[in-house]
Structures are given as structure tokens and as C-alpha cells.
């Protein structure tokens, strides 16, 4: 099914969804905000086919959410994908989705919440914008999601 082009729509929600309305885009953003930059790691964590991931990464670069940065791989030059300010500015949208999902959807196993870690102070916060422990403002650079289900699946 083909999607409608909303890039020129007068509604800012429609224009935003034209860029980030695909679930893979939001999941790639989540991983990029957690520090993932390499194609192989995105593929491993997201369990996504190479062609799907390649297409989404290219779209996200074109949309200005990520930028390619060349680096020397083991045998050749490769690209890593670095989050831009535009991508980092979507953190509140991811926070809202996480809170909504915690409240209105059922986890497949026992309830395991996604926590927010204030990196520089090394403690948890119940708020995504201001640390509930120390009161400092939180940005994408100084906070990270703790996903207990990811640690469980990686044997941690």
C-alpha cells in the first residue's frame, strides 16, 4: 500500500509524520539516542532486514535526522550514522510514546518498565526532562533509556 506524501501539507503534524511516521524510523532513533552508530549494531538490536534498514537510514539522512560519518572499517571505508540536532529534538516524542506504551499497552511478559538514567549523576529519574533526583535539566546528551528487557535478552 502506498503512502500519501504529506511533506507539503499545511498541518505540522502531517509534515512531521511524513518524516517520522514509519515505526522503523522511531526505533532507529531510539537506538541512535542510545549511542548506536554502526549499521551492524542497528541490524542486530532491531532484528531488521538489511534492505529495510538501508532504506530507512538513507531516508533519515535525507530528512536530516542522522548524518553519515565515514570511518575506516576492517577492510574498507564505511559509514556510521550520527544523530543530528533534529533527530535529538525528537527525544520528547519518544518519551511520550514510552510513557503512553507503559500506561496503555500490555508487556508480553511480566511488566518491565523502561527507566531513564541521568548519565552524569548515575541515578534514575522518573521525569524525562528534569532529573527527579537532583533537579538538573535532562537532554539527549546526559540521559539514556535503561531497557531491562534488552539486558535480559543479552544475558546480562
TrEMBL record:
Organism: Kibdelosporangium aridum
Any matching Pfam family: HxlR
PANTHER family: TRANSCRIPTIONAL REGULATOR, MARR FAMILY, TRANSCRIPTIONAL REGULATORY PROTEIN
Domain HTH hxlR-type: 11-109
UniProt name for this protein: Transcriptional regulator, HxlR family
Keywords per UniProt: DNA-binding, Transcription, Transcription regulation
Any one GO molecular-function label of the UniProt entry: DNA binding
Keyword check for Transcription: yes
Top-rank taxon: Bacteria
Transcription regulation keyword on record: yes
Amino acid at each position: 500500500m502506498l503512502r500519501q506524501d504529506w511533506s507539503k501539507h499545511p498541518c505540522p503534524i502531517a509534515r512531521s509524520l511524513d518524516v517520522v511516521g514509519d515505526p522503523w524510523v522511531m526505533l532507529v532513533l531510539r537506538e541512535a539516542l542510545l549511542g548506536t552508530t554502526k549499521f551492524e549494531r542497528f541490524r542486530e538490536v532491531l532484528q531488521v532486514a538489511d534492505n529495510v534498514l538501508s532504506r530507512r537510514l538513507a531516508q533519515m539522512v535525507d530528512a536530516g535526522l542522522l548524518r553519515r560519518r565515514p570511518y575506516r572499517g576492517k577492510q574498507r571505508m564505511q559509514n556510521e550514522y550520527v544523530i543530528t540536532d533534529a533527530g535529538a529534538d525528537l527525544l520528547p516524542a519518544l518519551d511520550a510514546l514510552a510513557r503512553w506504551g507503559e500506561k496503555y499497552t500490555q508487556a508480553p511478559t511480566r511488566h518491565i518498565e523502561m527507566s531513564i538514567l541521568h548519565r552524569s549523576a548515575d541515578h534514575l529519574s522518573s521525569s524525562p526532562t528534569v532529573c527527579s533526583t537532583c533537579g538538573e535539566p535532562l537532554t539527549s546528551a546526559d540521559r539514556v533509556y535503561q531497557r531491562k528487557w534488552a539486558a535480559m535478552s543479552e544475558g546480562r
